[in-house]
Amino acid sequence: MIDLTEKVIIVTGAASGIGRGVLRMARAAGAQVVGIDIAPGAEDRIAAEGGLLYRADVGDPGSFAATIDRVRSDFGRLDGLVNNAGITRAPDFLGADVAEWDLLWQVNQRSVLIGSQAAARIMVKDRLGGAIVNIASNHARASDVGYEAYAGTKGGIVAMTRAMAWSLGRHGIRVNALCPGLTLTEHVANVARDPAIAKTFNSWHATGQVNTVDQVGQVAAFLLSDASAAISGAEILADQGMVARLGALGAEKDEV
Ligand code: NAD
Q1: What is the pTM of this model?
Q2: Which candidate, 234, 224, 195, 201, places its Cα nearest to that of 84?
Q3: Which listed residue (64, 147, 150, 204) is catalytic?
Q4: What is the pLDDT of residues 130-182, one digit of tens each?
Q5: 32-37 and 8-12 as β-strands: parallel, antiparallel, unpaired?
């Protein structure tokens, strides 16, 4: 049983996709959840799941860290942070430009340093411990054409997580990387409306099924909870066996 009763949890990118699944599952486990997002309409989407929006861009270090501080002063405590907000880009490697790589670094990877540091400073001061979950990807393990910078951010998140677990463990703070595979976000579900594409997506998974956002959210809720007290510095693959398979996935694979 995952119990997050009375815990205050921040989820970045909570207005859609995996972040919404995390928000939903953390709420179901009893947490108070603040979503940090920039999307138009985020306030209503997060409220519909029982969360509260604090608007901030995780790529802007000052505003992101100040927002985390504001959550602590408004709610009186902070027990967990899920660094989930991210963007996916797979430009042709030979034509890719540095501005796009910089954006991937700032939004996907640097934000994990900024958010984790801000949250951990609060947790150390409050002496209540805490849990940080960094959403990476199975691209940290196996990647594809055009994903050089994206995969770099995800591999970087896994590596940073190991160091953070050791920097913060003595303060009772656990830090883990959660690596989903392809997940049925609104965008992926749209692409998978084509039955042929849905069949291909499902074929990449040992179970024959693409993850739902709630399945990934449930793993995040577990990593936030005391039920995972034995786990820190880990890379948790949640991809239904996709990268466990030897060999190529197939020439018919499309970008999503
Ligand atoms: P999504 O696009 O469905 O949702 C991302 C959310 O983050 C949106 O609400 C968006 O507004 C918000 N966001 C984006 N940039 C932001 C910023 N700078 N500041 C604040 N909020 C911002 O994405 P998703 O597919 O659910 O991805 C979520 C995370 O999961 C990402 O880190 C992604 O790399 C990772 N991931 C996704 C998949 C997948 O198949 N969808 C697989 C593996 C890993």
Answers
A1: 0.97
A2: 224
A3: 150
A4: 999 999 999 999 999 999 999 999 999 999 999 999 999 999 999 999 999 99
A5: parallel
